[in-house]
From TrEMBL:
SUPFAM superfamilies: Actin-like ATPase domain. This is ROK family protein. The lineage of its organism: Bacteria, Thermotogati, Deinococcota, Deinococci, Deinococcales. InterPro entries: ATPase_NBD (IPR043129), ROK (IPR000600). It holds the Pfam family ROK.
Amino acid sequence: MTYALALDIGGSHVTAAAVDLQQHRLLGDPVRRHLSHAEAATTLLDGWAQAALAACLPGGAPLRVGVAMPHPFDMELGVSHMTHKFLALLNVSVREELTRRWQGTPLAGLPLQFGNDADLFVLGEWWGGAAQGRARVMGITLGTGIGSGFVVDGRVVTDGPEVPPEGELNRVPYRDADAETALSSVALVREYQRLSGEECTVAEIAALAGQGDPRARQVFQSFGERLGEVLSPWVQRFQPETVVVGGNVSRAWELFIGPLQQGVSVPCVQTTLFETASLLGAAALGVREQVKEWSV
């Protein structure tokens, strides 16, 4: 069986999985290890390397390894530039360190590619999720922040007039701040607290909205409207066939899709892969000769 090994690096965990390159699906349950970004460099790198090995299938090595990493990270060199987390890895070559740890294992000498986690969410949905069959796909992830990605025929586009700088919507100006300030889970919690005087999680606000709480419903209505306002100009520029929405906030899909769709001229769809989308995207690195498009 031809498969790739995919790693998804998060601030509190690492997830690894074998991915069928023909069926575009995970082979078995992913391996998930809790590992804080604040750990020492050796602890982080050992944990990531061991999780990958634990996800390998018995009896055969994968064809390649793909890794979904947070930004900022030099995807070509495999060097971390993050200062908001993974501080112990600042300017460290993750590529060299993982390669060294995999010597003498089934992962030794395999092609190793890195991609931005938000980009790979969209690539995964294009390859094996809600956007299969679509040539041009725009995607966003909604959680503690907002992530975004733009895919054309399996290539991630990060530059040019059709997309925001580096393909990142979070820093796009919006009203008196930026898109992330208006569209994070923190914004939802803050708005509900302003209306009700109560501090609730996004999941709790969604539950209240489902029970008919008018303040909770208003919060998601406003959220969908703001999301549509942020996405609309970039939909017009990029001309995607569909917009895929993921992240934990997307689990409250029915509460904000109405106002969102009113503000966007192309179909918006909820992720079908959720947390596994970036794993599929990492496995899809290398499907094209050049998946990542760097414009100059």
